[in-house]
Amino acid sequence: MKITAVRSFVVNAQLRNWIFVRVETDVPGLYGLGEATLEFQTRAVTGAIDDLAQLIRGEDPRNIEHLWQVMFRHPFFKGGIVTMSALSGIDQALHDIKAKHLGIPLWQLLGGLCRKRLRMYDHLGGGNSQAVYNSAATAAFREKAAQSRADGFTAVKILAVGKTAPLDGLAALKEADELMAAAREGGGDDMDIMVDLHGRTTAAMAIQYAKVLEPYRPFFIEEPCQPEDWQGTARVARATPVPIAAGERLGHRHEFLHLLRAEAIAVAQPDVCHAGGLTEVRRIAALCDTFGVSMAPHNPLGPIATMVNIHLGFATPNFLIQEVMRADVPWRDEIVSGVTPIIGGHVEPSQSPGIGVEIDFEAARKYPFVEVQPVQWYHRDGSVADW
After folding, report:
1. Predicted structure pTM score
2. By CB distance 3.0 to 4.6 Å, which of 1, 15, 52, 145 could disulfide with 129?
3. pLDDT, tens digit, for every residue of 15-25?
4. Cβ(109)–Cβ(89) under 8 Å?
5. What's the whole-number average pLDDT of the chain?
């Protein structure tokens, strides 16, 4: 069996463009699908996919580890989020090919079931970008948290901390308190609520936010500092009893090792579309398990990434909970079929071979690449702020 082509397909999803990868083989009808979506850097990733394709064309797609090493090591300059995203999408597609060739679901290829069902968590508004990022009103938080509960979810993530300064004042803390209180009221005491700080704060300010949020018992606080500031994240972890989660912008297990050695996180959030695909994320999961850290993979991306994460969760012993964006665009189910339905906030294992999804390429052509402007905002004095 040989790889004959590696192709990328871009589908607009409003806030981002989904980047789907298709690895084709010389076996009639046998190909693999993956996802390499990276916000605001679509053309860079599709170019990187083309660069990596020339390294593996003509190779046996079933030699997944070998091909991972080729794509990671042979370009000489290793890593970088663009290259790792491209590699991630190809790696997922290689797993899809091998599982399809064997006639088994992907979770079986990854070692079999570790659990009978998988817990999913929602975003306000089901992941609609306006509800998630641009609706800092207590009534909206209350209503949308209640809707997630009505839809069967037992966990939801919110951005209770808005566009904050590196060191902010009492008004910002009061706003976070009010938004968290509204979400708790809407979701009820049985709803686990995660709070994403989006790396907007310094450690000093994140500690103040954590103190305000503590009485509402967040399930975890996510990304309190910028991803390179693992020391700051550790300071926050030492200052609050609320578990800390991080890792969505890290691309390799060596980057997670800083957080783990510093005892900075209780929950790791590698992204299967950025952190080297299934091959590397499984190594990250094993490393985290050694330190007693749970896995909650980052996933605000497309339906293929969602399904890959579901398979990964079923086969990962230290898996905790899975993020999903279910209402980002109305054409989600029009483009990709085969994604396991969420019932009562959980999914059951797919029995279809491989990842179990198919792309309707005719439907995809109706939503071509759109130039998406990176989210930009500034502090009150005009200095650059982190999204």
Report:
1. 0.96
2. 15
3. 899 999 999 99
4. no
5. 96
SS3 assignment for the chain:
CCEEEEEEEEEEECCEEEEEEEEEECCCCCEEEEECCCCCCHHHHHHHHHHHHHHHCCCCCCCHHHHHHHHHHCCCCCCCHHHHHHHHHHHHHHHHHHHHHHCCEHHHHCCCCCCCCEEEEEEHHHHCHHHHHCCCCHHHHHHHHHHHHHCCCCEEEECCCCCCCCCCCHHHHHHHHHHHHHHHHHHCCCCEEEEECCCCCCHHHHHHHHHHHHHHCCCEEECCCCCCCHHHHHHHHHHCCCCEEECCCCCCHHHHHHHHHCCCCCEECCCCCCCCHHHHHHHHHHHHHHCCCEECCCCCCCHHHHHHHHHHHHCCCCECCEECCCCCCCCHHHHEECCCCCECCEECCCCCCECCCEECHHHHCCCCCCCCCCCCCECCCCCECCC
Residue 247 pLDDT more than 80? yes
Tokens of 298: 């980052």
298 is catalytic: yes
pLDDT confidence of 132, banded at 50, 70, 90? low
Instruction: Determine whether 274 is an active site residue.
Output: no
Catalytic hit among 198, 252, 274, 311: 198
Query: Nearest to residue 108, comparing CAs of 121, 119, 120, 98?
Result: 98
The token duo for 97 is 């090919």
Report the C-alpha gap between 130 and 187 in whole angstroms: 19
Q: How far apart are CA 227 and CA 248, in angstroms?
A: 8
Single out the catalytic residue among 252, 274, 298, 311. 298
Residue reference for tokens 């083989």: 25
Q: State how far the Cα of 186 lies from the Cα of 319, in Å rounded to an integer.
A: 27
Two structure tokens written together for 132: 């998630």
Q: Is the pLDDT of residue 133 over 80?
A: no
